[in-house]
Amino acid sequence: MPLKEYSGCQFFTKNGIKIPKPTVFRLSKYRRQLMLFHERGVDVVSSELLARVTRVHPAQLRKDLSYFGRFGVRGVGYDVAKLLGELTEILGLGRKWKVVLVGARLGRMFLNSRHLQRSNYEIVLAFDDDPSEIGTCLEEEIEVHDLARLPSLVPEHDVSIALLALGGARAQRAADLLVECGVKGILALAAGELHVPKDVAVQYLDLSALMDAITFDLVQTGSLRRGGERMIETNPPPAG
What we know:
CATH class of the largest domain: Alpha Beta
Number of strands: 13
Radius of gyration: 21 Å
Shape: globular
Strand content: 15-25%
Distance between the termini: 48 Å
Structural class: alpha/beta
CATH topology of the largest domain: Rossmann fold
Strand order of the largest sheet: 8-7-6-9-10-11
Largest sheet: 6 strands, parallel
Mean pLDDT: 84
CATH superfamily of the largest domain: NAD(P)-binding Rossmann-like Domain
Helix content: 25-40%
Number of domains: 2
């Protein structure tokens, strides 16, 4: 039951069940951990252990999985290989996804992602509008083409997803070209809000928001870093 996202804000299953966005991200974490268990020869894992290593509450883990059916045996745990297979299918990772990279300079740093290398994503094309990047090569000898050639090259490679690493008006221009070529999923690494049709799934990597979340955590908890250990006030002042 693969997931479908609409307008970059809500996830639904194919039969229309609404799924909270954080649940989808946690499913990916569960799957990656199950892959490690499987590689180590672990056959069965309890919900308590899987929750602990993925840093969620066991009840949250069970709730996340319950959107897609009943898994595991009470008092025994989850069959690692079976649950791994189920999550692979749910996340649509039972196939190879061809990806186009737009924006070579920023995009290069993400190509070394361990998860990206271990998943079913294959970078098949790269583009940029920066003359200093055009004609260079990414890893595995993928040439960076002029962005103007995107409309002629992308349709030839059955690309489904774009890794968009341009900002501002450049990002919107590239997104328009990608949509015209039939790309249905965009991960925007540096762009503000993109204007795309409702049937195009978009995710944003907002580094500023992530940094703001860190400063919020530091300020609200009154935490200090001492020797790498997080120290939290045990007696916060009473609420006023």
